[in-house]
């Protein structure tokens, strides 16, 4: 069966006008080709759609049913085309974003998410909290569109762009002798009991902070190992030790925790936006990138 959308439009025009001449004028074509196309449609279907006389045209029972179905088909096609266009423009669809636990506390990220939500309310943002190294596989296989993560070695299949560099800070209890300092050197922390990330947790901050300490020939005295930065903050607030964390976490206000900038100029943590080189960068992804980087 070879029925085209134009056949449906021709048929609907004749069915609504019940006159081939008026239908032809409405369609801006001549009457003979219109009559030929309607006959061809009837042949394809195998049913008479119109009862014709010299003076009148009326729908048969089959024609009445086909009119309802033809209208439904055209509406469905138009809606499908509109949805596809909205997806292409990034006005509709889904955006899947992986993020580390610090990302919501980074102003550039939270502001971009808020702006995107206001500008594109019909795009569903699926946020997945997942640490840096665990984002790599879903970014590669398409389960994530974008990843907000700390700097880490990437496979060749992934691309990144630097989102920001933020300072690392010492985090101490308010009664700690260092709590009143305006700045502190890494060397001053060398003998302190250290609350640190578990090496098995997959967070890039583990290697980033450890590399910084080793650069200054410090082997931290680690007394507690945990999986999340929030747990580190909670333990620091009890006085069990000190730690080093990115400044963005300072937006979490804990009365017993004091944040002290580090003196070293290289005490920085990079935040990246990462995506797959092998997959199409959708319009929704482009919109989010624009808001993240203020492009």
From TrEMBL:
GO MF term (any one): DNA-binding transcription factor activity
Taxonomy, superkingdom: Bacteria
Residues of the HTH lysR-type domain: 3-60
InterPro entries: LysR_HTH_N, LysR_subst-bd, WH-like_DNA-bd_sf, WH_DNA-bd_sf
Keyword DNA-binding: yes
CDD domains xref list: PBP2_LTTR_aromatics_like
Keywords on record: DNA-binding, Transcription, Transcription regulation
A Gene Ontology cellular-component term: protein-DNA complex
Sequence similarity: Belongs to the LysR transcriptional regulatory family.
Protein known as: LysR family transcriptional regulator
